[in-house]
Structures are given as structure tokens and as C-alpha cells.
Design goal:
The protein is mainly α and 211 residues long. The chain is built from nine helices and two strands, in the order H-H-H-H-H-H-E-E-H-H-H. The longest helix has 26 residues, at 69-94. It binds heme C.
Length: 211
Amino acid sequence: MDQKKQPEITHAEYASKKGEIALRPHEFDGIQEYDQTLPNWWLFIFHASVIAFVGGWFLYYNVGLTKTDAENVDAQLERIASAKAKALEDMLSTLNDETLVNQWATDTTVVDAGRQIYQANCIACHGENLTASIDVGGGQKVNLPGLSLKDAEWKYGAKPMDIFRIINEGTPADSPGHNGAKMQAWGQTLPPLQVAQITAFLIHENEAEFR
Ligand code: HEC
């Protein structure tokens, strides 16, 4: 007897040919499940993501082919640090006691820029009038945390470049500061140009002393 071979067909395919929806044989709490395969486009994306994950995991964590996030951050920080060092070096190649007093501090645009940066960053501790105190009325004065920048006394050197340096580098590590307060290194937040502009402003405000 020669039986004709039937093409193999799944239950679900058979049902769908008949225009029916096949159900899986199980049932839980009256809930049944359709017996349908997921669309190929969906399966393709699913399998591709699994492969991409395994490949990515292997290359990133085992082979070390790509840089880790930590290495990327370190490289960026290094780049920023060297750009800052370069900017300071460039500034120091032309900035000196003589140019600060005779060029920077006599240029009104430079001094005005310095005044604005001073007002934005320094008045909290050195006062709007540079005396490190504020007038609270009735002849009363309140001292601010900083030192007076108008008393012709410069604790860390009275040369223009000494003033640039104390602003740029802050209180030296081995100094106890003033009443226990140390000043931050403004070079961390302000570019060398702005530190030079504030220095020019301070020299301008203390003109008699520097000329
Ligand atoms: C949070 C408070 C604070 C701020 C803000 C501050 N300083 Fe100071 N500054 C101090 C203190 C405190 C000292 C004294 C440090 C010491 O004795 O080591 C000081 C010292 C100085 C000195 C040395 C003064 C001297 O007579 O020897 C200069 C110059 C100076 N600051 C400039 C600036 C400039 C410019 C800014 C703004 C960019 C600024 N400071 C912002 C607290 C501050």
C-alpha cells in the first residue's frame, strides 16, 4: 500500500488555514493561550539584541577592545587639565610685574572686566569696597572672612605677580590662613585671563602703592 505523504503542518497552521485561531491545550483559572508564533521581524530584533549583548559584553568586559567609561572620563579630565596648564603657561609668558602695572592696570577695558569678575566672585569675603568689611549703619562695621585688599598689606608678597599667584593658587598648603579661613585656588574655576584681569583691577584700585 502506497500511502501518499502528507506535507507536515502544525496544528496552528492547520487551524489558521481554516480561518480559526488555535489555542494551546492548557488552561489555568479559565485563562487560555493562543498558539501563534511571534512575527519574524520581532524575532529577528530579539535574537539580534541577544547576539549584540553577548558580543558587546565579551568585547567590553573580556577583550577590552573598547575603552571603559572610567578610562574615557580620565582621558577627558587629563585633556582639560593639560589645556588649563597650557593656558596658564601662555598667560605667564607675557604676564609679569611690569606688564601688569603698566599695561593691564592702565587699560580701562581690562580693569572694568576685572571689576565685574571681582563683583561676581569676591565681594562675599572681601567686600564691595575691598576692605573686607561691610557698613551695617550707625557707624557699625561687620568684618567679612577675607583680608582687606586696600590696606597696602599683602600677606603672601606685595609684587603684582605675587597677587596674581595668591588668587590663582589660593592659600598655600602650609599656611594656617586667616582666622582659620583659607582661600580657595581661583585658578580652578576662573581662566588665567580672568585672574589677570582681577589682578589688574586690584592694582588699579591700589594705584598709589604700585606707581
Ligand atoms: C569664601 C571667602 C573668600 C572669597 C569668596 C574670596 N576670598 Fe580672597 N581671601 C579669603 C581669605 C580667608 C583670605 C586670607 C587667606 C590667608 O590668609 O591665607 C583671602 C586672601 C586673599 C588675598 C590676599 C590678600 C592679602 O592681603 O594678602 C587676595 C589678593 C584675595 N584673597 C583675592 C581674592 C579674589 C580676587 C577673590 C575673587 C576671585 C577672592 N579673594 C575671593 C577669602 C575669600
